[in-house]
Request: fold
Amino acid sequence: MTARLLPAHFVGLACACGLAAADAVRLQGAAAAALAAVVVPVAAGLCAPPGWSRIAVAAAFVFAGAWWWGSARLDTLDRSVLAPRIGTADRFVAVTTAEARRGRFDQRQRAVVRGEPVELKLRPGRSPPQGARLSVLAVVQAPRGPKNGFDERTWLRRQGVHVVLRVDEWHPVGRRSGLGGVADRLRGRLRSSSAPGLRGERRALVEGVLLGDDAGLSDGLKQSFRRSGLYHLLAVSGQNVVLLAGGVLGLFLVAGIGRAYAHVAALAAICAYVLAVGPQPSVIRAAVAGAAVSVAWLAGRLRDAWHVLLLAACVLLGWNPYTLFDAGFQLSFGAVVAIFVVGGPLRRELEGYPMPARLRTALAISVACTVVTAPLLWLEFDRVPLYGVAANALVEPMMPLLLGLAFAAAAVDPVAPWLAVELAWLNGWVAAYVAACARAVSALPGAQASGRGAALAAAAALAAAVVLWRRVVRPYP
Reply:
C-alpha cells in the first residue's frame, strides 16, 4: 500500500519522533524546552528544500512540543512515593486494576496504592477479582534486577511500577467506582455472555481471543501457541475492533437508522470494548484507528490509513513514551506496517495462483507479518517460530467467525439466552479447531528456533523482506 505524502503525515511523524526522543534525551526545565522550541524550528526552516519550509517549521514546532511533553511524562512516571519505603512492612489499601497472573510459585496482580501503580505478589490459591478494594498487610520490596535474560525492574519501571508488595494477608473492603468500576462491570458482562455454556479449554480460548486474557489456558496450550507463531491471537487486535464496529454499523443500517447515528453507536461500542479489555497497545491502536475513521466520516474529512496509524502511535507514546520499548507495541505496529507495505502487493502477486481468495489474502498477510516481526521476536525473546506462515494461513480464515460468534452471543444473551448458548456451542468447535492447529504445528520438528537458530531465522526473514520489497512491492506504484 502506498499513499501520497501529506503535511499531516509529516506533522504526525514529527510528533511521534518527538515523543520517542524523550526516551533518549529529556528536556530538563523550562529553559531547555524554550530553547528547543526556537532552535529546532529555525534549523528545520533553514535546512528544508524549497517549497517545504512551512511544513518543516510546523513539524519542527510539533517535534519540540512533543519532546517537552514526553520528557514531562517520563519524569512523572519515574516519580514514586512508595520507593523510599522499600524494606518496610505496613497495611495498605490497594485497588486491583487487572486480573491475577498465576505463576508456578506465586501470583502477580496489578493494583494502585496511594495513587501509584504497584504489583502485588500473592500466595498461590485464591486471588482477588479485578476492581476489588483490598486491605493488605504487605512488605514493600524492590523489583528483581536482571536475571536469566529478563530485567523485571526495568520492565516494571517503564510501566510506572517501582515497588512490589509481598502480600502476607488481604481481605476485600469494597469495590472501585467511577470509570474503573464501569470497566470492571463491562468486562464481567462480556466474559459471562460471550461463551455461555462453554467450559474448559474452549471457553478459555474464546475468552483469550476476545479479551486478550490467557489465564485460563493450560501451560501446554500456551506453549503450543508460542511455538506455532499463533500467540498473537491471544492479544486483542485490530480485527476485534473492526468486527465490532462493522457489526454495529451493519445492524444500524439494516434497521434503517441513519449512517451518522450508526457511526456514533460504533464509537460508543469501541469505547466500551476498550474499557472491557484494558489498555493493551494493539487494542488502543485499533480503537484509535476505528474511532478516527468514524469521527472523520462524521466530519466529512476521511483520512488515509497512514495518518490514522501515526495518530495511534502518538496517543500511545503521549501517554507513556516508554511504550516504544514494549514488545506488544513493536510487534503490533510492525505487523500493521507490513500489511500496509507488503500485504497488498503480495496479494495481487498471488492472484495468478489457483487458490481461494480468502486463502490468498491470509497467506499474503501471514508472509508480510512474518518477515517483519521475526527480527523483532528474535531481539525481544530470542525465539522465532519457523512455521508461522503455515499456522496463520490455517487459522486466520476462522478468526472472524470465532470473534463474530462471540460478539453475537454477547449481543443476544440478554434477550435470547438459548440462542446465545447455541452460538457459543458452535463457537466451541471453532475454538477446538484453532487449538488443534496450534498443537499440530507446534509438534512439527524444529517448530521454534532459539539462540543461534533464531538469529539465522531472523536474518533469513530480513533477506526475504528485501526480496519482497524489490520484486513485489516496488513494481506497484
User: Anything to note?
Assistant: The longest strand covers residues 164-175. The first helix runs from residue 7 to 24.
